[in-house]
Design brief:
Layout (H helix, E strand, L loop, with lengths): L11 H14 L9 E5 L5 E3 L15 E3 L5 E2 L8 H10 L5 E5 L2 H8 L12 H5 L2 E4 L7 H12 L4 E4 L3 E6 L2 H24 L7 H8 L16 H19 L9 E5 L5 E3 L15 E4 L2 E2 L9 H10 L5 E5 L2 H7 L11 H7 L2 E4 L12 H4 L4 E4 L3 E6 L2 H21 L10 H12 L1
Parallel strand pairs: 6-7, 14-15
Antiparallel strand pairs: 1-2, 1-5, 2-3, 3-4, 5-8, 7-8, 9-10, 9-13, 10-11, 11-12, 13-16, 15-16
Helix pairs in contact: 2-5, 3-6, 6-10, 10-13, 11-13
Keywords: Lyase, Metal-binding
Organism: Namhaeicola litoreus
InterPro entries: Aldolase_class_II_sugar_metab (IPR050197), Aldolase_II/adducin_N (IPR001303), Aldolase_II/adducin_N_sf (IPR036409)
Length: 431
């Protein structure tokens, strides 16, 4: 049974422990690095403790600094608490702050650059403009002042010179989505630079993407949830959470669907953090109508057309994974003739220009494409298959293949499996 992690209803100490664990397990901070705080309705600030292992932090370890300055908890507040407090004083709309040292953003901080979030479709909207704070001694009043000054300008994301990054949000989920999207943008810029030159979307292209609101399909009058439908809901949620844990999906982007009966299917919703998705969030699409009271993914129309025109496709995953997106932001050719498994499963990965996935392009070649995997430039990768677990496996294989190519780029020219070897694979596995 999958239960909803409704973070907004969790106690502040539980929210903080959950999010710092996600950050640590995804390799975006170290045992000793990073800190999180949350300001509650009474003005109290809940914050991670100083000198406590981030990999095993428990809710009982979280410290509360009361509005009157008194401290409740068995540990000292984080040594960086002064700049958390300074941010809250500078911005009344900020209710949560995340500070960490994720590798890609640290890379930008030590070369004195800010990542261009126009590299993927949704990041600019989520991250907003990004500030830059000059180096000051960690834990010092001066550091708090330079960071608060950037937040006072309206920024919710700030690169800290030779240090890391700090992000704020209206709640902890909002701050985490911003943190995750910014680090992801930095990673694909770095990975893309290993194999080519990253391309960026114009503001006009991003605005067009933002206009692609989910289709207001008519609502069903009656919704039924027989056992086979409920089983598929569970499968979808398990795969979404697995993808998040493995870094193959981030909070702000990812769509998964499964064919149910005929051309009816189930699909993930829009504007629900992928980490916290629940079976009750999944949207049923039946006879061209949506489950009442729910807003399906903005890509629902595309999934619907693919199911109609491709009877052998029974599941679809659209996501952003870092190494595949390195090819998705450079338009470099992803040659999957790396190892036999890659070619057998994928054979070829087609690439399409940004915008060909808009609903206004309903006759797009994407709909009729027979490739197992495709890349939509600066937007996503789409994987299709029969069983959902099989489709997820294809995603993993594609990502591993892309990772091998990105990592091997500095070693020399790739030598792929030759045509004769490919023909042997074709005869042995595909005929």
């Amino acid at each position: 049974m999958i239960n909803r992690l409704n973070t907004k209803l969790m106690h502040p100490r539980d929210q903080i422990a959950l999010v710092i664990r996600r950050i640590y397990e995804r390799g975006m901070t170290t045992t000793s690095g990073g800190n999180i705080s949350l300001k509650d309705e009474e003005g109290n600030i809940w914050v991670t403790p100083s000198a406590v292992d981030k990999g095993s932090l428990r809710p009982s370890d979280i410290v509360c600094v009361k509005s009157n300055g008194s401290i409740i908890g068995k540990h000292k507040p984080s040594s960086e608490f002064p700049f958390h407090k300074a941010i809250y004083e500078a911005r009344s709309d900020i209710k949560a702050v995340i500070h960490a040292h994720p590798p890609a953003l640290v890379s930008f901080s030590i070369v004195r650059k800010i990542p261009n979030t126009n590299v993927i479709s949704q990041a600019k909207h989520i991250c907003g403009p990004i500030g830059y704070a000059k180096y000051e001694l960690p834990g010092s009043k001066a550091l708090g002042e330079v960071i608060a000054k950037e937040f006072a300008k309206g920024f919710k994301a700030v690169i800290m010179e030779n240090h890391g990054t700090v992000l704020g949000g209206s709640d902890l989920s909002d701050a985490f989505q911003r943190f995750e999207a910014l680090e992801f943008s930095a990673r694909i810029i770095l990975f893309g630079s290993n194999i080519g030159k990253p391309n960026y979307l114009s503001d006009e292209q991003i605005n067009e993407w933002e206009k692609q609101v989910p289709s207001l399909m008519p609502e069903m009058d009656v919704v039924e949830h027989p056992s086979d439908e409920r089983e598929k809901r569970n499968e979808i949620v398990k795969i979404v959470r697995r993808a998040c844990r493995q870094g193959l999906m981030i909070s702000s982007y990812g769509t998964v669907s499964m064919r149910w009966k005929g051309n009816d299917f189930l699909i993930t919703p829009t504007d629900v953090p992928r980490w916290d998705m629940d079976i009750g969030d999944i949207v049923q699409i039946k006879n061209g109508k949506r489950e009442s009271g729910k807003m399906p993914s903005r890509a629902t129309w595309m999934h619907e057309e693919i199911y109609k025109k491709n009877p052998k496709v029974n599941s679809i995953i659209m996501t952003q994974s870092p190494y595949l997106m390195a090819f998705g932001v450079t338009n470099e050719y992803l040659n999957v003739r790396t190892i036999p498994e890659s070619w057998i499963f994928l054979q070829d990965i087609a690439s399409f220009e940004f915008g060909t996935h808009f609903k206004s392009q309903s006759e797009s070649k994407i709909i009729n494409n027979k490739s197992t995997a495709i890349i939509i430039q600066n937007d996503s990768v789409m994987i299709t298959g029969d069983k959902l677990l099989q489709t997820f496996d294809y995603l993993e294989v594609a990502e591993f293949s892309a990772k091998s190519l990105v990592m091997g780029a500095s070693l020399g020219e790739m030598v792929p499996i030759n045509n004769e070897q490919v023909e042997e694979l074709r005869k042995a596995f595909l005929e």
